[in-house]
Design brief:
This is DeoR family transcriptional regulator. The protein is an alpha/beta fold and 323 residues long. The chain has 11 helices and 16 strands. The chain has 2 domains: 96 residues, Orthogonal Bundle (Arc Repressor Mutant, subunit A); 219 residues, Rossmann fold, CATH 3.40.50. Helix 6 crosses helix 7.
Length: 323
């Protein structure tokens, strides 16, 4: 028992362990020749080597790691991983049936952070000349990548002397800003009337007067799929909502991507809610040039190179702007 107690002190908490595993899958996706992050299988030996290099903890038991992962999944009531076999023995992959917001928010973590930082830099550069205390109005729409944008804004509330007028039907965004600490005193949140959908974590409604009666500084949208320049999400009701916001709401429109959206195998039955050229800006993470994700993204974006040229390309993100 004493040995077990000593060992537990040198092991990660479930949440921290899962966070590192998800980061590892994101890093592998950056360089892998796969269509989806769910296609990646990592031998347990490679996972233990990664954990040792990152936190200096030596794991000897595959079963202990798997058990901690399963306990975390039970706690959040969501399946994230799958245990399988590879040529190198026991392996871990991500769940192949990814459909809910709760699942999606755990994937492509590093890519979403890079994109969110790009969006925040874009907004920050636009407001540097604003007077202190001025208000910036933002519609933060659906999706876990948009939620990451909200998280980056929340982390930087003290760095910009602004008031933030946030409109959203994304409960992830509401959770980011619905705090009571002093940093949030300059944030107001407005939410439209509607019905909560637990799969998408959205308040869905056709009543969008809240959005239509104003002009936003920024409208931030994401997508599930990108195919031949067209944009899709899984659910028809969400697709109709996104199309209405994209085409009828007033404001500078930004599409946020992680790189995984570009696909050769479109599986959703809905009509596209928009196209790349509908947006004023496209922001996505810098991807390794020889990865499958980068090749697919480059192919998709090449057709818009003249109307949406790249204005910023750095180690973290890429920004394209409509001219």
């Amino acid at each position: 028992m004493d040995t077990e107690k000593r060992a537990s002190k040198h092991r990660l908490k479930q949440k921290d362990l899962v966070a590192l595993l998800l980061a590892l899958f994101s890093e592998e996706y950056d360089k892998a020749q796969v269509d989806s992050i769910t296609d990646i299988l990592l031998p347990m030996s490679a996972i233990k080597t990664y954990l040792q290099s990152k936190v200096g903890i030596s794991y000897t038991s595959d079963a202990w790691i798997i058990t901690q992962v399963r306990k975390y999944e039970e706690e959040i009531d969501t399946v994230l991983f799958r245990k399988t076999a590879s040529q190198e023995g026991a392996a871990l992959g991500l769940c192949q049936n990814i459909s809910t917001y709760e699942q999606k928010r755990h994937l492509y973590v590093t890519q979403k952070i890079r994109t969110a930082n790009g969006v925040f830099d874009l907004m920050r550069n636009s407001v540097e000349k604003r007077p202190s205390g001025n208000t910036i109005s933002i519609l933060l729409e659906a999706g876990s990548t948009v939620t990451r944008v909200a998280e980056i804004i929340a982390q930087n509330l003290n760095s910009l002397p602004l008031k933030w007028d946030i409109c959203t039907h994304n409960l992830g965004v509401i959770e980011c800003f619905g705090k009571t600490s002093p940093a949030y005193k300059n944030v107001s949140i407005s939410v439209p009337q509607g019905k909560f959908d637990p799969v998408t974590n959205l308040i869905l409604s056709d009543k969008l007067e809240l959005y239509m009666d104003r002009e936003f500084d920024w409208i931030i949208q994401g997508t599930s799929f990108l195919a031949d320049g067209n944009l899709y999400v899984e659910k028809p009701d969400e697709s109709r909502l996104k199309a209405k916001i994209l085409h009828d709401c007033r404001g500078t429109k930004v599409l946020v991507l992680t790189g995984h959206e570009a696909t050769l195998h479109l599986s959703c039955p809905t009509e596209p809610f928009g196209v790349i050229s509908d947006y004023d800006y496209i922001v996505y993470p810098a991807l390794a040039g020889d990865s499958a994700a980068a090749k697919k993204m480059n192919k998709e974006m090449a057709q818009f190179a003249e109307t949406l040229p790249v204005i910023i390309r750095n180690w973290s993100y890429v920004i394209m702007a409509h001219i």
